[in-house]
Amino acid sequence: MMGAAVSALVLAGAAGCDDGSYLAPGETTTSTTSSTGGAGGAGGEGGAGGAGEGGGVVEPPGPPALTVVNGVNDREAIRLCFVPYPGDGVGVLPWPSGAAGLAFGKGVVIGADEGVVTPGVDVQVHVVAGDLGATVGRDCAEILALAGEDQAVVQVAALPVVPGAVFEAERSLVLVPAGCLGGAGQTDPAEVLACGSAYTEDNPTVSLVAAPMSRLTRPDRVSFQVVHASVAMPKVDVRLASGPADLSGFLLAPGLTFGAAEPFPPTTTLTVTDLDTTAQIRTHTPGQTSNATSSVPLSEVRDRSGLGPEVLDNGGAAVLVAVGAAPGLPDGPFWHALNYVLIRADP
């Protein structure tokens, strides 16, 4: 069972298929972000939200579960190749199976019976974008070859290897390909606010966030965690306001940094009656309770998720995944504004 500390892996990738860019198991360039509860203080500000201060709290074991969220900010949809490592992708089919791919800002659960990943087997994740129709009927080896052609109609970004142990652990995991793939002509004066400070059209910022989600709940409360998967967003406090007149709101996740899943234990202070139709998810400069840097209606996030109302009911375990551009930047010529994907912690 997991203890009070919950770790999220941030795996930075590289465009193209050069094996030298891969992060093989055991290499030390993977960064680890620790997520701990109790950072929010008292008096309604508690990041742990009544679930304790983290000490002595353990995550209950459960069957391995995998949810994938598309946070690649400069494409409308992607497919993914989960290629066993080492391997060339021969016979490996891209996911999802349809040509439409996985739209930006959508989350989908991958069932264990789908055979997309094999517990205990290291996996090289490749993001596939562009003309997804051209990938239909091809396995991942053929798609990688297609991306290497002159005037290629698809683009591929090779992300680091995810250790096989991640997929067999008794926890619920969310994988979020994030950042921007770039490409010729994909430039704008506001590009770093959309894709991260290191971005240029020739320097993609595509990364992979792998974050465990907590199944801890209370029958009389709604459990919340927030995952930071926006390469362009700085460290923020995430608050939930009851409506436009609520200037400060309730602190959901204090000091949230890229790759982190906060808080642990989840905040369990709010009830379903606190989640009015006018509720807003806001970002703030850490430590500030006013002057929000962004605001997104919770009702829009819930409706877009396609999930039933029970995910935000008492006893439910909800996770908000932040994807898109930096707070305050609207949709642009090739990017999406900051938004949230609502998923179940225990699908």
Question: How are the SSEs placed, and which strands pair?
Answer:
Layout lengths: L5 E7 L1 E2 L15 E5 L29 E5 L1 E2 L4 E8 L17 E2 L3 E4 L12 E8 L9 H8 L6 E9 L2 H4 L3 E8 L11 H5 L11 E7 L9 E6 L7 E6 L8 E7 L4 E7 L12 E5 L9 E4 H8 L11 E7 L15 E6 L3
Parallel strand pairs: 4-11, 5-11, 13-19
Antiparallel strand pairs: 1-3, 1-12, 2-10, 4-8, 6-7, 6-9, 9-10, 11-12, 13-16, 14-15, 14-17, 17-18, 19-20
Quick summary of this structure?
The protein is mainly beta and 347 residues long. The chain has one domain (65-344). It is 7% helix and 33% strand.
| Mean of all residue-level pLDDT scores | 85
What would you report as the Rg, rounded to the nearest angstrom? 19 Å
What is the H-and-E element order? EEEEEEEEEHEHEHEEEEEEEHEE
The quaternary organization reads as single chain
Major sheet attributes: 7 strands, mixed
Uncertain stretches: 1-7, 12-53
Coarse structural class: mainly beta
